[in-house]
Amino acid sequence: GAVVSQHPSWVICKSGTSVKIECRSLDFQATTMFWYRQFPKQSLMLMATSNEGSKATYEQGVEKDKFLINHASLTLSTLTVTSAHPEDSSFYICSARPTAETQYFGPGTRLLVL
Amino acid sequence: RKEVEQDPGPFNVPEGATVAFNCTYSNSASQSFFWYRQDCRKEPKLLMSVYSSGNEDGRFTAQLNRASQYISLLIRDSKLSDSATYLCVASSGYSTLTFGKGTMLLVSP
Fold this sequence. Notes:
The complex is a heterodimer.
Chain A: E1 4-7, E2 10-13, E3 19-25, E4 32-38, E5 44-51, E6 57-58, E7 67-73, E8 76-81, E9 90-99, E10 102-105, E11 109-113
Chain B: E1 4-6, E2 11-14, E3 19-25, E4 32-38, E5 44-50, E6 55-57, E7 60-65, E8 70-75, E9 84-91, E10 97-99, E11 103-108
Parallel strand pairs in B: 2-11
Antiparallel strand pairs in B: 1-3, 3-8, 4-5, 4-9, 6-7, 7-8, 9-10, 9-11
């Protein structure tokens, strides 16, 4: 069964609204979770590393004020896309590593901004 | 230069065929390598890790050549259900997974 869940699975919103995506680790605690974004026919690109109890680490070119990450507990990280615009439309995927050797991805959230 | 490069696709093969995917990586500090499978509109799922000695899992064989910074995946006796995009992944540390764009495989009856 799934070890990482995401909610919602898809979102359609108007330009300018904010969208929150939740990522939960099931059956294990994750002090670190990862947020990726994938545009059509492109690679998964790491956006940021979410750290429980501390600030997230953002990859170069990813605006931290645009993509707010909160990792308030050992099983939950949230990504909020603030003031979403059509160019933010993408497939957002989180992941968590229960061990150093394994990484599980959530089912992804498809965001469409009109 | 892209960090992880894969064969362009799609690969169209008949059922039962053997197909090979190639991948090169540019970061010599990469330590771990994986092949992931991604179905359309789904998240990637780990297919197999890749070890220097080469490893096999059923119909799937992965090879790594560190000197050439080259990774391969061989699929024997292709099934219709093998149709997916195969992602080559290199990791240089605990958090950093670098994905290739993926190679699409279409297995036809």
